[in-house]
Specification:
Length: 192
Amino acid sequence: MKKKLGTAKTMMTTNMLSSLTKKERWVIVAVLLGIAVIIGADIATDYHEGVRSWHIVAEGAVAVSALVGILYLLSGSFSLKHSLEVERNTSEELRQEAERWKNASKKYLQGLSLAIDTQLSKWHLTDSEKEVAFLLLKGFSLKEIAETRKTSERTARTQAVSIYAKASLSGRSEFAAFFLEDLLPPTTPARA
């Protein structure tokens, strides 16, 4: 439970500090440090002048509060820097993992690509329709296909409909399932 509270507190501190720029954090630290120094000097002067102790204690509390604020900002900055470094490392690890997967599966993907191209040829698709078919399988929207191919969205839609008709398939879902359904692991029946 304490670990969860500590993590939540760190996240809250990180979120609050991330809204401040590095320059803003350092300006606040400098202001708080200035306040602590000025109050420290005032306390020393007041002490030598014999000012009442409650006044010195009150000013001391303000100086300590300023120092605590400085420590809070600095610890938050270090926490933010650490979180950013962890995120960078995680991002890099994920990028490397994706690259490894891509390299390891390259020959299988090329084989799948050739098999798909063979099937598209059996359906007597034109080269343009084949290009649209591959983009559909990659998950492109008709708008994205039109932009990629520098055609209108209407042309992309017409070609997609032609692909489905030549393949005797009802639409995009059935088209994608024709090629990809067997790639997914079999589902097991749900237990009652």
